[in-house]
Amino acid sequence: MLHRQVAKFAKRGRWKLGCWAGLQVWQLLFLLIPLCLAGCGRGTLATDEKPGEVVMYRQIYRIRSLDPAVASDVYSALEVAKVYETLLQYNYLDRPYHVEPLLAAAMPDIAPDGLTYSFQIRKGLFFQDDPCFTKTGGKGRELVAADFVYGMKRVMDQKNASNGAWCFSQVVGMDEWRATTGGGKPTDYDAPIAGLQTPDAHTLVIRLKQPQPQLVWILAMHYAAAVARDAVECYGKEFGHHPVGTVPFILKSYRPNYRYEFVRNPKWRETGRVDRFPVSRDPNDPPDIRAAAGKEIPFLDRIVEYVIEDSATAWLMFLTGQIESSPVVRDNFAVVMGPNRTLTPEMTRDGIRLVESPTMDVFYIGFNFDDPIVGPNKKLRQALAFAFNETEMNAFYNGRITRPTGPLPPGVAGYTARPQPYPLDLPRARQLLAEAGYPGGLDPKTGRRLALNMELGSADDAEYRQSIELFCGFMDKLGVKINANFQNWPAFMEKLDRRQAQMFQLAWCADYPDAENYLQLFYGPNSSPGPNHSNYLNQDFDRLYEQARVLPDGPARTALYRQMEDIAINECVWLMTMQPRDFLMRHGWMRNYKFHDFPYGMIKYYTVDPAARRLWKQQHGR
Question: What is the DSSP track for 238-284?
Fold first, then answer.
């Protein structure tokens, strides 16, 4: 399950360039660029590119770990997918989304009862060379079926406290094995599990307790990655900083919270592995994507990524050609976008391209049901929801958001349209607040205004703070004080995992395009450190969820989804805030990019034109 920072749906800058008089916007930017970059301690980034080398420069955010079992947020998962691979992957170009074989030789054989999945593993695929492979003198060994079994066991091992344990709980014998992993005794990874069988080195058989139609989606997630036991046992606690995988790239160097560098994995060429760019079936795909069909991947020789939390720095680095792409900066939206939501002529002449797409991301404020104030008081939660001003928040985000009507966004299997259940209605909100025991917002125990604590990530993001101030203003009109507590992303997630938040703000980026993946966030057994960070418990909801998750897509399952969504909405487990559209600006020399809601590992399809980049920099005096 993949949560991400709310501020990062479009990492935006803090410069209000349109308000400066006497200078053209571009003149002002170029005057400010050297000062801004120098002030952030980065200056001009050295390229150190070799002749003919294809290098991509990117912005990333802080990550928790490169361990597939531990990574539980979008940013960590994106980095993990640069090194680790899974049995299945999403097709890069096709819509609607579907999965296809990656490390598997073909899609699985599924028994008629839906309980047994049989995979054949591609032969002749190897892990990267690494000193952990002592038996082969540091040469990467061949991938085998047991590497998938080991990876799944690590996710289920209680000692690893993985947020992905829900993925494999339906495997026969897995829960029983998991129960043996608690306490101080070393975990027995050699103990057999009835539902995970490897009849030979390249065959994996998975047996389930009950049908799980979502399994093919789950097996494309990083939790299902092939993991070399050799590496885990070699590096121990440092394994999360020393990934060893099978993908086209390997981690060459890193400085946590500053810089990561990946290089092309020479093992592919050495062992003759050939993967190819998919064929486009969409007539709207641009020429560069259609022209890449059938070409050998990856195209990049090197990927250099900088952890840039300051949005102004990232924006200016994009404008100077130091990184390839950037979300549209909120405060600059009116400057770079024309009246028809297209790039201005100045931007277009400068070779900038815009990619706009809807997303399946859902943003919300969650209530911790363990908390004695917000947990048992539904009318209090509903009062806060009725005080949310969608119009003002949408204006803040340049009209790029809509307020969800429930936890399920359009585009997922099982979605049904409904009216907004909590429109802005301050009189009703005040009445509910009084019925909740806080007339006029006063706490009868203290005689003072009710004060609630909200935990937040993105401590360094100025715009995020502005959006939270706006939200606090909404609640202030109701008579409720919100204490906003900011921290960095890893510390924030740790607080949620430990159930230490009264309220919190998160975004859910689906693991796969099925309503079940969203509704699992309200399933009792998935409470923290699982994805149900609201720690919501409802026996009726859990019963419906357990019925629905075994059914194939169809009217019967959709009806159950509707009932579950009704419960979550009526209980006001979340205060729904927004669903954004994605606006990405890229330089013309960045090629083969197509928006994807599940972009993990997709960087192997991207490329850049180094000659076009050099020419652009020469023309712009970079």
Answer: GGGGS---SSSEEEEEEETTTEEEEEE-HHHHHHT--EEPPPP--TT
Tokens describing residue 73: 């947020």
Tokens of 70: 């531990």
Rg for the chain (alpha carbons), in Å? 25
Cis before 529 (ω within 30) = yes
In this structure, are residues 285 and 278 in contact, taking their beta carbons and an 8 Å threshold?
A: no
User: Can you tell me which residue has the tokens 């492979």?
Assistant: 133
Fold of 84-234: Dipeptide-binding Protein; domain 1 (3.90.76)
- The string of DSSP codes covering 72-105 is -BHHHHHHHTTT---SEEE-SS-SS--EEESSBS
Closest CA to 334 of 43, 19, 611: 19
Q: 142: which strand partners? A: 126
pLDDT in tens, 4-15: 444 444 332 222
What are the beta bridge partners of residue 204?
A: 119
Query: Which two three-digit tokens encode residue 579?
Result: 């669903």
The CATH number that domain 362-581 falls under is 3.10.105.10
Q: What is the pLDDT of residues 317-362, one digit of tens each?
A: 999 999 999 988 787 888 888 888 889 998 999 999 999 988 999 9
What residues have CB less than 8 Å from 247, skipping those under 6 apart? 81, 82, 83, 84, 85, 265, 601, 604
What's the distance, Cα to Cα, between the start and end of the chain in Å? Answer: 41
Residues in the chain: 622
- The secondary structure of 542-603, three-state, reads HHHHHHHCCCCCCHHHHHHHHHHHHHHHHHCCEEEEEEEEEEEEEECCEECCCCCCCCCCHH
- The mean pLDDT of 242-267, rounded to a whole number, is 95
Q: Which residues contact 433 (CB under 8 A, 6 or more apart)?
A: 379, 380, 383, 439, 440, 441, 478, 479, 480
* Other CB atoms within 10 Å distance of the CB of residue 34: 13
Angle subtended at Cα 63 by Cα 61 and Cα 69, rounded to the nearest 5 degrees: 145
How far apart (Å, rounded) are the C-alpha atoms in residues 491 and 459?
Answer: 10
The ranges assigned to domains in the chain are 84-234, 362-581
Instruction: Please report, rounded to a whole number, the percentage of residues in the chain having pLDDT higher than 70.
Output: 92
* Pairwise CA distance, residues 240 & 123, whole Å: 27
* Model pLDDT, residue 47: 57
pLDDT tens sequence across 570-581: 999 999 999 998
What's the confidence (pLDDT) of residue 21?
28
The answer to whether the predicted template modeling score (pTM) of the entire model surpasses 0.90 is no
Q: How far is CA 161 from CA 80, 166, 271, 336, 555, in A?
A: 17, 12, 36, 44, 36
Per-residue confidence at 44, pLDDT binned at 50, 70, 90? very low
DSSP-derived 3-state class of residue 155: helix
* Inter-helix orientation angle 426-435/378-386, to 10°: 160
| Residue pLDDT, tens place only, 230-252 | 999 999 999 999 999 999 999 99
Residue 313 three-state SS: helix
Least confident of 183-187, 225-229, 404-408: 183-187
Tokens 């036991």 correspond to 229
